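Entry for the shared binder. Reason: the reviewer on the internal report wants the predicted structure included alongside the sequence.
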Amino acid sequence: MTLIDADASVVPSRGVSLAEPGDYVALLKPRVMSLVMLTAVTGFMVAPGHIHPLLGAVAMLCIAIGAGASGALNMWYDADIDRLMARTAKRPIPLGRIERREALAFGLTLSVFSVVVLGLTVNLVAAGLLAFTIFFYAVIYTMLLKRTTPQNIVIGGAAGAFPPMVGWACSTGTISIESITLFMIIFLWTPPHFWALALFKLKDYGSAGVPMMPNVAGEASTKRQIFAYSLILAPVGVAPYVLGFAGPVYGVASAILGLIFVLHAYRTLKMPDGDVKMVAAKKLFGFSIVYLFTLFALLLGEAVVARAWTMVGA
C-alpha cells in the first residue's frame, strides 16, 4: 500500500494511477450514501404500492449508485477547494490518488448506468427523478450555487431531499403529498444542519472562498436563521403522523425530537459571536444527524412492522 502525506503535493505520472479500490469507494461518499439509502428505502417501504422484491432490490441499488455518482461528480468539480479545507483535504483527488478526469468518467458512467437500469426495470418516473437529483446536485448545487451564493445550501439542499421521493416513485410510479412531506423534512433540516457546521468551520470555508452564510451574513444572522428554520422544521417533522402515514410512536417521538432540536437551535442563537469553542453549534450539528436518522428509522420500522403484520394476517 502506498502511503501519501496529506500535506504533500503528489501527482501521479501520466498513465500511472495510485488508486486502490478504497479510493473509488471514497469518491462515492459512503457516509452520505448511507443516509440517502435510509431515506430512499423509507420512502419505498412507506409507499402503498407493491413491486416484486427483486425489482425493489434493483431499485434501491440504482438509487445507491446514483447517490455515489453524485458524490464522485462533486469531488471532481470541487477538487481545487477540497485541497484547501482540512475537512476534505484527505479525499482521493487532493491526495493525488485519483485524477480529476478519472473521477469525472467514473461519476458519469455510474450516473448513466443507474438511471438507465432504473428506467428499464422499475419505471420512468423514478428514473426521471433520479436523473434530476444527480443533475441538481452536480450542476445546480456544485457548479452553479456553491461558490456564488450564501443560499447555496438552502436551494441545493433539495438534492439531498429527493431520495425518499425517488423511493416512493419506485413503489407507486407517482409523486404524492406523502412523498413531498418526506422531501420537506429533509429540505428544511438541511440549512440548520450545514449552517451549524459552517459556524465552527468558518475559517475552513473562508480559506476556500465558499460563501457559506456565516462568512457572508455573519454569525448573528446565521444563528437567527438557524433558529427560524428549526421552528418550521419541528412541526413539519410531525406531519407524517398528522397526515396518517406514520403511527403514534413516530408521532410522539418526532414531537419530542423536534422540541430538542429547537432547544439546541435556541442555545446556538444565544451563543456569543466569536465563541472559539462553538460548543452549542457543535451539539446542534451532532443532534441534527441523530434527529433525521431517528425520524426515518422510525418511519421505516413502522412500515416494516405494518407489512409483516399484514402478511401474518393474510
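Summary line for the report: The mean pLDDT is 90.
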